[in-house]
Write a structure and sequence with these properties.
Number of helices: 6
CATH class: Alpha Beta
CATH architecture: 3-Layer(aba) Sandwich
CATH superfamily: Sugar-phosphate isomerase, RpiB/LacA/LacB
Largest sheet: 5 strands, parallel
CATH topology: Ribose 5-phosphate Isomerase B, Chain: A
Strand order of the largest sheet: 2-1-3-5-4
Distance between the termini: 45 Å
Number of strands: 5
Order of helices and strands: EHEHEHEHEHH
Radius of gyration: 15 Å
Strand content: 5-15%
Structural class: alpha/beta
């Protein structure tokens, strides 16, 4: 049986990695395509040394512009990718290192970019993290207020001044 994303809808997904995440990106691309998603690899350095901010820019920009529904970034620790991706307005990149952080990044934070560690996560765990992240929907409710405050910060405003506090 072929699985699909949240509510049975296939998504447009962009993947990016530096040299340390290259092999993982290739594996995840196969997994996501078999799950029915349209997947594009951006910033593929073919295993040659490359800088993670380049891939983070490409993937996060595609998600922010709406040409992709979600993105996945992989580097040695996932930290650098997460920092770089979160510099793009409209991006909520989350570093997930287990199933719970993947789930909460979606239910509470509506993360649209998932950052992973090629060096610290095993292949089996990483596949589970990705599967959970794609199957989990945003809860909305009280979390919508918090996302609005994140948008305020992106726009240079103090979120504590919000009337929704």
């Amino acid at each position: 049986m072929r699985r699909k994303a949240v509510n049975g809808v296939a998504m447009k997904v962009v993947l990016g990695s530096d040299h340390r995440g290259n092999q993982v990106a290739q594996t995840l691309m196969t997994q996501l395509r078999s799950d029915g998603h349209e997947v594009n690899l951006l910033g593929d350095c073919g295993g040659q040394t490359c800088d993670y901010p380049d891939a983070a820019w490409q993937v996060a920009s595609a998600v922010a512009k709406g040409t992709a529904d979600r993105g996945i970034l992989i580097c040695g620790t996932g930290i650098g990718m997460c920092i770089a991706a979160n510099k793009i307005k409209g991006i909520r990149a989350a570093l997930a290192q287990d199933e719970l952080s993947a789930q909460l990044s979606r239910t509470h934070n509506d993360a649209n970019v998932l950052c992973l560690s090629a060096d610290l996560l095993g292949q089996t765990l990483m596949k589970r993290i990705v599967d959970i992240w794609f199957r989990t929907a945003f809860d909305g409710g009280r979390h919508e207020r918090r996302l609005a405050k994140i948008t305020m910060i992106e726009n240079g405003h103090d979120p504590s001044a919000s009337k929704t506090s």
